[in-house]
Amino acid sequence: MPVVHLLDYVAGNVRSLANAIQKVGYQVEWIKSPDDIRNSEVLILPGVGHFGHCVSQLSEGGYLEPIRHHIESGKPFMGICVGLQALFSGSDEDPNIPGLGLLQLRLQKFSNKGKSVPHIGWNSAKPTSQIGSAYECFYGVRPDSKYYYVHSYSVPYIPGTLEKEGWSVAAATYGEEMFVGAIARGNIFATQFHPEKSGRAGLHTIHAFLNSQMLRVFETPSQVCRDCGGLTKRIIACLDVRANDHGDLVVTKGDQYDVREKNGVDASRKVRNLGKPVELAKRYYEQGADEIVFLNITSFRDCPLKDVPMLEILRRTSETVFVPLTIGGGIRDLIDKDGTPISALEVATVYFKSGADKISIGSDAVTAAEQYYEAGEKVFGTTAIETISNAYGNQAVVVSVDPKRIYVNAPDDTTHHTIKTAYPNAEGQSHCWYQCTIKGGRESRDLDVRQLVKAVEAMGAGEILLNCIDKDGSGSGFDLELINDVKAAANIPVIASSGAGKPLHFEEVFEKTPTDAALGAGMFHRGEYTVQEVKEYLGGKGFFIRKFEA
Ligand code: 1PR
């Protein structure tokens, strides 16, 4: 097998990239010292998180000059995400740290006017050179494919600027802003998107690069793209995982978080078993799921570092599933069974190394938010959210919220933020607030969901996974009031969760709320609908979704 050299110099999920390279028929060798770069033929530079952190790590490790030399010598080079950004002169993210300066442009932060930042999800990369309706494609980057992006800073696209210097460019649009999605010139190919997380479209570009299929294929999109770019509506499949009564890890699903069968008395009720985690994840990937989430729902009982089966699930899944994987459950500071303290950052690192792209924090985020308010809205720099987002970037930290409705007669009856609901309770109360819970809904806290969102955003969370205990497993549709209320308070993306029962519910949530993504569980596990059916339904209703690519 031909060899590709991969630089693992900074925190991030490089396992997925290695898996993707192997999937397209190449062998990966890791760069362990600057000398390895001098001896390499094909070099890939990945990177996630902060521009400054990545470039400083490269500089301190003595890698910058060998990379520059590799590029100048004409050998194939590919940069991914911050690996693309490092080719530019600098970034507003860390103004004092210079990039390699191969391109004299700077990265700027996306404006959050009317849109969530970070930019997370599936977007286009349209080649900017066109003859008639045909696009001049490079390295298999196709005008009607969608690619997975996750970043807050980008190179603004100014038509003609890079092209004048001989670069091929593919551009994307986020809100009103156009930015550089991919570039190529000579031996260099670099993408802002993550090809290793972009399903078959992404594997296709890695394959094209490794086969040196640079230029120039003219392609007319198979159909006229109704919109000129922008994020697609993400459909996410969620797998709640726990040990069943025989000790095997299974995918389960609760009603209002009760995952045991309805028949029988309490102790004898069995844990619902809806399938095997790795198999179901692969099935949903093949059906076109845009992301997969695993939640280890009994993690509060165990030390996750000893939870080898969960890590094994991630490792095996990341070999066949090339869309983002999120893992939640038990991400917090721990004391191991032998008394050794283990930080949340170390726990997260184990998950990232096993194939996770994001980690999701539930209970610990509530505790951290409580401390934030006790300290007068101050951050400490030591919470799990802060330490993990500092090391891996905000985009890698999801906060999973498990709220439930608390009805009151009038807003003055509570200190918490209330909404007037169209669904009064049996007592006729028509105001409610959303109370945060921990340990999978087992304990309620004196904190509302808006307070939580504000606090975790200040700490550096990149996304909110918004469950709803009242709606969970009901199949009656999402809690649109909750989602609208949280979206009004959040600048970061929100994933709507709990209550999906049919494709119409996804239409409702995208139509009636500005949610960034929607998640389903039970309806997919029970085989009532496939992810593909939901997407086809949404596509038929005029929503912009990522189509399945064979
Ligand atoms: O607190 O950091 O250890 O994380 C524990 C994680 O496990 C949290 O993300 C919490 O939401 C989750 N969790 C804990 N107990 C349960 C349970 O069900 N007993 N599952 C649980 C939460 C909610 C969704 C579910 C949607 C969609 N599951 O992920 O998949 O409600 O379901 P539906 O479409 O079928 O309605 P920590």
From TrEMBL:
Protein name: Imidazole glycerol phosphate synthase hisHF
UniProt keyword list: Amino-acid biosynthesis, Glutamine amidotransferase, Histidine biosynthesis, Hydrolase, Lyase, Multifunctional enzyme
Chain sites annotated for binding L-glutamine: 81
Keyword Hydrolase: yes
Gene source species: Elaphomyces granulatus
Reactions that this protein is recorded to catalyse: L-glutamine + H2O = L-glutamate + NH4(+); 5-[(5-phospho-1-deoxy-D-ribulos-1-ylimino)methylamino]-1-(5-phospho-beta-D-ribosyl)imidazole-4-carboxamide + L-glutamine = D-erythro-1-(imidazol-4-yl)glycerol 3-phosphate + 5-amino-1-(5-phospho-beta-D-ribosyl)imidazole-4-carboxamide + L-glutamate + H(+)
Pfam families: GATase (PF00117), His_biosynth (PF00977)
Binding site for substrate: 330, 467
InterPro entries per UniProt: Aldolase_TIM (IPR013785), Class_I_gatase-like (IPR029062), GATASE (IPR017926), His_biosynth (IPR006062), HisF (IPR004651), IGPS_HisA/HisF (IPR050064), IGPS_HisHF (IPR014640), Imidazole-glycPsynth_HisH (IPR010139)
EC number assigned by the record: 3.5.1.2
GO biological process assignments: L-histidine biosynthetic process
Function: IGPS catalyzes the conversion of PRFAR and glutamine to IGP, AICAR and glutamate. The glutaminase domain produces the ammonia necessary for the cyclase domain to produce IGP and AICAR from PRFAR. The ammonia is channeled to the active site of the cyclase domain.
Signal peptide region: none
